[in-house]
Protein: Undecaprenyl-phosphate alpha-N-acetylglucosaminyl 1-phosphate transferase
Amino acid sequence: MRYYLLAAAISAVVSFALSVLAWRLGTKYRLAPKIRERDVHTNPTPRLGGVAMFAGIVIALLAAWFVFPLISGVDYFRLVFAEPGHILAILGAAFIIVVIGVVDDLWDLDWMTKLAGQIIAAGLLAWQGVQLVSLPIGGITIGSSYMSLILTVFAVVLVMNAVNFIDGLDGLVAGVTIIANGVFFIYSFILSSSSGSEFEYFNLAALITAVLIGAAVGFLPLNWHPARLFMGDAGALLTGLLMATSAVSVTGAINPGATDKSTLLPVFIPILLPLAILIVPLLDFSLAVLRRVSAGKSPFSADRKHLHHRLLDMGHSHFHAVLIFYGWTAVVSVGCLLFFFLPPRWVVVFLIAGLVVCAAITLAPLSRRKRVEMAVQNAPSATAVTAGVEQYDPLDQAGRRASASPKPSRDDERIAVTALRNVTGPAPVLPETVTRSEAVPSEKQKPLTETERRA
Structure:
C-alpha cells in the first residue's frame, strides 16, 4: 500500500508544481482562450492544467518503474512492467490525447478531428493488448479478437467524452475523479488480496488509479472555485482515458468465480462498479447525445444544457452544484462497493437513503423558487413594485422581462418576503412616467415632493 501512496504523492506534487507554473505562464502570455457563450466563468482562464496532470502521471509511473526497485531493493511492480508494451501504449495514448486537447483548448478543433484522435489513442491501447478479453458475468469470453478491439475502443472513447462533457464547473471533474477512483482503488486493492495468482497484489489498474488520484489532488487547489486554472479538454480527456484503461484492465483480468463470494451480486461488481463511478458523466453524456440528435445536430456540438448548467439554472450556487455532483458520485460508487462488506439488504437501504437525500438537495431550489413566486403573486401588483420584488412574478410582464435574471436564492427569498411584509397600507398609484428607480426610494434618493410630482 505504501508504494501506491508514494506513487500518488509523487504525481500530486509534480502536478501541483507544474499547475502553478502553467497558471503563471498562461497568465503572463495570455494563453487563455476567449469566453464562450456556454461558459459559466466570466474571466478568461488558462486551460493548461491537463499538461501538468499528464507530467505528474508520467513521472510517477517512471518512478514506480525505475526508482522504486532501488529504494526498496525489491521490484514490487515487476509484473506490471513485465510487459512494457502495455505501459508504453498507455503513455503513448495519453500523449496523443493531451496534444489534441491542448490544440483544441487553444484553437478550437472541429469535433471530427477530436473524435479521430480519440479513436487512434484508444486503438493504440487495444492494439498493444490493453483490451477487454472477457466480461465478468459468468466468465463470458469475447470470442473474436476484432470484437474485443472494437468493444475496447468504443468503451474508451465513450468514457473520455462522458468525462469531458461534465467539465463545466470549477473543481467538478477533479473532485469526481478523486471520489470515483478512490472507491475503484479500494475495490481493486481488495481483489488483489483475495484472488490469488489471477490478480497480483501490485497490478496495473491500481497503479493507474493511484497516480490519477494524485494528479487530480495536485491540480484541484488551482481549480477550486474561483478557478485560476482549468484542466481543459487535455485534462478531461486524459482523465477519462485513464479511468477507462483501469476499468478495462481490472474487468478483463478477473474471473469472478475466483473471488470466493457466497452471494450473486459481488460477482457482478467488476462490471457494476466501473459504471457506478461513471454514473454522472455517462448520464450527462447520454442526455446530451439524445438532445442534440433529436434536434438534428451533431452529438458533439456544444450547448448550455448539461446537467451542471441545469443545476445553476435551478438556482444552485456554483459551490452547491459541485457538491451535488460529488454526492451523487459518492452514494452510487460507495453503495456498489459496500456489497463486499455488508448484506445486500443493508446496501439497498444505504443506496435508497442516499439517493433520496441527494434528490431532495438537488430539487430544493424548485420549492424555494415556488415560495418566492407565490408570495409575490399573492401580493397586489403595486405593492410588489413598491417593494422592488416584481421581477419574481413570472406571470406578469415585468417577470417575463426579467426571465433572464438569476434565479432566486435563499437570500432572495428572505429579501422578497421581508420586503412585502414591510410594505403596509395601500400602495400609491404611480404615474406612467415614473420609472421603477423613482418608485423605489433608496438611501441616496428622497421621495418626490408634491411640487415635484405635479411638475
